[in-house]
Amino acid sequence: MDALELLLAEFFGHGTSTDRKRIIEAQLESQRMSLDDCRYLLTHARSDYSAWFAASQFQKRIQNEWTHLDSQQQVANRTFLLQFLQQRFGSGATGSNGSSGAMGINGTSPGSTGPGLSSFVANKVIQLISDIALLDWPDRYQELFPDIHQLIQSSNKDHALLGWTLLEAVIQEFVGTYPAPGVGKSQRVHLTLAQQRRHVWENFKAQVPALLSLIVQHLDTCYTKTLVAPLSTEAPAPSPVEHSIWGNGSVGRRPSIAAQPSSPLMFNNNNFSSFSGARAVPGSTSNSFTSMNPGSFMAQSLFPGQGSDQNGAAHSYGKSPTTMLRKTLTNFLGPPTTNDHHPSQSPVSGSGFSLLQSRQRMGSISSIGQTAIRRSSINAAAYLEGRRNSVEATFVTGNKMDSHTRKTCLLALKALTTLLSCPGLDPRQVSFSASLTTVLKFSTLHQSKTVDLGILALSCLNGLVARPGFLASNQEVMTSAVRLMADLIRYFNEVRDGIDDIDESYLQMFMHFVTLFCTLVHLERAERELGLSISDFLFSFARFTLEKISVDYLKICMDVWKSFLDIIIHSAAEISRPIPAHNRLRRVQEPVLYFMSALVEKFYKMKGATRSEDAFSTFEVEDEDDLEELTDLVEGFVGQVGEVFMEEVIEMLNPLLHQQLEQFSRREFDDCKTLPLTLGILSRVAYNLVQNFDIGRDYTSNLMIHLTRMTKLSVEFYLSTIGDASSPGKDELDLSGTITLALLNALLPLISWLQQFWKFESEVRAQSPGAETQIGKEIYQELAQIASHLFRSLLPSSIFNAPANSLQSTFSGRDSNALGTFLGPATAACSPMDRKLLVASIKLLGTLTVQVRPPADNAGGFSFWSLESTQLVATCLSQSVMANSNFMGLEFPPQSGATDGDTSGSEQEDRQGVTPTDDLYRNAYVALCHGIILDAKSGQEQGTLQAFGNLLAAVMYPLQKILQDSRSAQGAFANPEVKFSVHRALVVLKAIVLSISEASAVSRTVAFEGLKSLLPLVQEYFEVYKDDHDVSMDVLRFFKALVTSLFKQIGNGYCLGIARVLMDRFSTPPVLDTALMPISQHGVTNGISNQQHIQHQRSLVIHQQKLREQVNESLVILRSILKLPGKEITQSLPEFCRFLFGELGPKLMQATIQRPTSSPNPNGPEESLVDGSDNGAYDLMTLYFSTIQTLLTFHARYFFADTRVQSRSPSSDVGANPGVTHDRLQALQSCLEFLARGLHRPEPDIVRKVIEVLEALQDHPQCRLFDRTEFQQTFRFEFLQIVFRLALNHTQDLLLEEMAGLVHRLVKGDHASSSDEKFVVVWQTDLKRFVAGLEPSQVLTDLQISQRTSPSSSSPGGCGGSPAGSVKGSLVGVAFPDSTKEALWIDLARLGDESTYREGLYDFVNDVQVYAQSLL
């Protein structure tokens, strides 16, 4: 013991080196102590370290020797451990997850002596009792639960705490015996047979009711003795608005004056001359927009100076947008009226209809819409302030609970949570009602001393609700949970300081709890059974949400609101808009609109734009990220509300929007700071205007005109000020640019509405030939003109006149290590706002060309290409596209999205090798090409082709000229300017090709004809620049775009030509060897310094990265070509197989996967790049297996020649030629061979990928790999053998579960009619054959042997022992007995059961290891 104490003290000493610790650890591991030694050492330990070492040795002896002890020895050891805990468990020790510090044996510090136990030592000893209980209970340890119960009932607090700790630990272990993988918190593999575990579980399940009763009784007792009465829920939860809102007074609305707001658009010289014109929207019979009744809502909104004082009150509230927002709906609805008002008495003129008329058809919303804005939150604050502290005395408080009670309750709650969450306990068979009632009580504990109890209770409830069928079996208790939720929210609203002091973890759990129950179904049930008002609850939760100022807190609460609105939106999906007046969704309208308006008001106040008082404090935003998240939250929530209550949201938003736009037009910048926010909210609501075209057609047409007019004014103002020396200050200029950007973004979601409106106009003209209004066409032209003007004005003018050869010198300073860039120093500067507006202008132009198609009957054959603005943009692009300037900067903005319609991959992949300037030009070209190609019609191909050729002339001509000049000039291709021109041209062309992948056949044919002459040139560039990575990647991406989008037009012959070029290039051995070689094998160059060596290694790493990118991209192209239909592809499969299995596959399987290191290298970033970089082998390997999957699924008729396939294709000659048959079988064998080699890989992710591929091959309807005759006869047993051996030597439970799924598919099949017969055959043949050949030496791994055997030594200083390999070698030639093999074979019978195949493989692996260990 003296030597052991010294070793342990030295091991845990601060000055001990790592090497010395390894030596000590080996000495300690070599000790083989008997149970008597363990008991003596544990009893007489003079430090925590020696006590823990003794407990660890005790555990090893239990695992290896317990079943060989006689009953007296077992009883003696159990008694010793229990008495030892009773004597030592006390002050300084905690439960299984106690938070006490590491107290020493004497209760002071580690290393000292005394009676107390440290928490980690006590937990270890408790775990020993749990292990013994798992082995002996119930047959040989029947007194387990009586002993625990006796401890719990003890008057000694330490013994009672010990009893609860033991109960919680035992329950954790016994729940882990439930026969399902992954259940229970214990992650250790117990060496017991599956039958023993099932026996323990069945007996333990019978004890569960008694255990639940014991736990619930203790928790109820503690709750009653130490806590005051629970929440009083007799009165409904108070509303966050004033008390009078719940009065019975009638609240009506004024009669609506129906008016037909018509389009005021005036067309004069392609410009808007006035917003208020004289023309009407087609289909409307009103005379003019200006003839509206002054009292109507639309007239009041657009002409606030007209009408009576009362109706114009919305404008008289001053310049506060929040005051406008709060008063808008009041003015529209008017003062209360008598109940004898009939909406039908309102005059209605014309066949069209406005928002007001549709509201009349919907019916009165008196107290719904009016109180949402009319009731001020100021009065609500005064009312609630008077009621604060009124319920403090009725709420539970955990501050009176002593430490001992809290610990026992925490352990009891943990045990109860484990039992309730166990899937083996069916709520329909075991009553959980009393337990749930108790958990609900404890879920209200949020005070600092007992908050851990509240968190645990809420966690238990959240887990229970997620269980299938749980709510259906416990509806009554769960309804009480809804009431509890409402009571807690009410309490937090009324108690002093609210939720300021609540633990954040508790708040998150509580919000998750609210999310689960805040649904229409639960709230309506609570309303029926408990009288809980849905409106009361939502108003109370609105106050709860708005109480705090933290953005993080708001995000937590907004998750609840979003979840609730998602349910509302789903419920309203099949309901026509507007929502009928008596629909149940109208009941939630009032509180939802109230919360929405209050949230927006609070957000506006944060921006400093309101002058009105408010009941709520503003949000505190720490940085720009917080502001962006908050803006997105507010805008997104209003958009969600608008999906259900579109009219109400628009009516609240419209006056504020109009006022701020008018202020902006008068350059009153101080009063329109929040205009971008208002426009952002409008952009979220605009989608609903598109979805409900008929309802808001007239309003939306006027809104579109207004926004278009204001956007034009804003653009002109911004452009006039950026070059004016006397322009306003920077802040004012930035605000002008921000508003311009917001206006452009607000127009984008309305573009699809313009398409519907233009079509509607055409239908009206067809029915009424005299109608000549073309408002849709005029808006289209104006938007195109705005985008064109803004783009041409902001594009730096210096790049137009810069000669091409003048830029050659700019490449001298280019970073040679920059991947995929062709940038020189900036030749022109752009401000950040200019860049954003440039991108926005092209996005607007692109959206117009994609979403709006001019009707076939448009007058004069109008087309996008005929617009003057389009011609000007095309001219601008042709002059600047080849200029080498990085005016857009070097980095993409964080939220900048591509607009070229590329859907081939992620945005990040699309931007590889592309700069922001490249992105701007390619998006501009794509937008113009869409306007030309997407309008292509049969019979007009020639004109469309000519326009397309004219547009691309500036891109295609340089490629042709470079090749011509290179024939007379040496080294022309090495010129950086030439490389840049090739790069820019290929980037633009690739984007155009990808953007038309979903276009019509006519459009794709036109694109192909326009690009056909370039295809041979691109192949020539690929050969010329084979050593240049950047251009090679551009060519490869262009090839991929061609194969993906225009494969029908270019034909399989050209695609196969691309494939052969790629396979020839990468068949050269040094390319793949260099790409996959580990850095350590590159060797060391003599005669250079360490810094030079690092730089040399770094250059090799970069070179490898480039080669891997090319190989990866080439393999993606080959995979795409293999997916193409056609006989030519099938006939070329031998070439693909020779490359995949003769060249790429062998080199790839020999590669070592090197993943990035997670910790930084202490020697610096250069050293880390060399030592810890990803060598790319993993990505290539996963792509390679996916390519094999593509090969077998898309060409199943080639690889498989069974009768089922031939019957579907009687004319197929596959398999008729013996040579073809041999190649087919050889290729199939190669596919499965490399999949098998993938299963043998040491990396779990690779094994998982191969399993996914194999299962996908079985799922594919044309493949059905496991059902094929070739697989059944030749490969089935080999794959079963591989997977079983892999499972026997694998320790990852998740991967083992996936292996079980694969084995089940292999032995069972997917055809219900023959699956049972197939399994019986496989079980009698392959599975029996595998078990018959299984030997113990194949089961135990070296790691398992080293853990379960250790050589004996006489003292701690003794080191030595036989290696694990010699012990394993002693098992060679030893066979399992026939009875054991029979038992193992019976275990495998469960693999054919759909519900137990996972447990079957788990049990088989566990049992065979136990049998092998017993032989050892």
Description:
The chain is mostly helical and 1416 residues long. The protein has 59 helices and two strands. It has a two-stranded antiparallel sheet with strand order 1-2. Helix 51 packs across helix 52. The protein is globular and about 105 Å long. About 21% of the residues have low confidence.
Topology:
Layout: H1 2-11, H2 18-29, H3 35-43, H4 48-65, H5 71-88, H6 119-136, H7 144-152, H8 157-175, H9 194-226, E1 267-268, E2 271-272, H10 297-302, H11 313-316, H12 321-333, H13 355-362, H14 366-374, H15 377-387, H16 403-421, H17 433-442, H18 451-465, H19 470-473, H20 475-494, H21 504-517, H22 520-530, H23 534-546, H24 551-571, H25 589-606, H26 624-644, H27 646-665, H28 675-691, H29 697-722, H30 730-747, H31 751-767, H32 775-794, H33 832-851, H34 868-880, H35 907-910, H36 916-933, H37 941-966, H38 976-995, H39 1001-1011, H40 1015-1024, H41 1029-1045, H42 1047-1066, H43 1069-1076, H44 1090-1122, H45 1127-1131, H46 1133-1150, H47 1165-1171, H48 1177-1194, H49 1196-1199, H50 1203-1208, H51 1218-1239, H52 1244-1259, H53 1269-1288, H54 1293-1308, H55 1312-1332, H56 1342-1348, H57 1364-1369, H58 1378-1387, H59 1397-1415
Antiparallel strand pairs: 1-2
